Amino acid sequence: MCLPLSFRLNMAAAVIKKFFIASMFMWIAPLAILYGFNHNLLPGSTNLSPHALTLVSGFVAVISVNIVIAFYIYMAMKEPVDKHEPDPKFLADAKASVSQPTGEAPTSSESIKKRE
Length: 116
What we know:
Belongs to the VMA21 family. This protein has 116 residues and is mostly helical.
């Protein structure tokens, strides 16, 4: 079953859109988390020492990127899978061209030495 070109292009556009959105979240989420921790916008961040604040904010930012990646993988796995079936005429032409004799192959210097 071969899908129409317009449908395949719409699917490709949807995949690119999802990739772009996931990429944006991979940049925005950790930066927002780091900004929130450093400007005391997140609850509990005022009670942390500067060293602990750096560690916790970095750890949470890394975790947020991993969550975005996991969500993107989940969305990619939900994409419809269409088995591509090659054109039968193309297959017949390819098989015919492979089975045709092409003439004598050029001989290498090693094969000439072996004959002597």
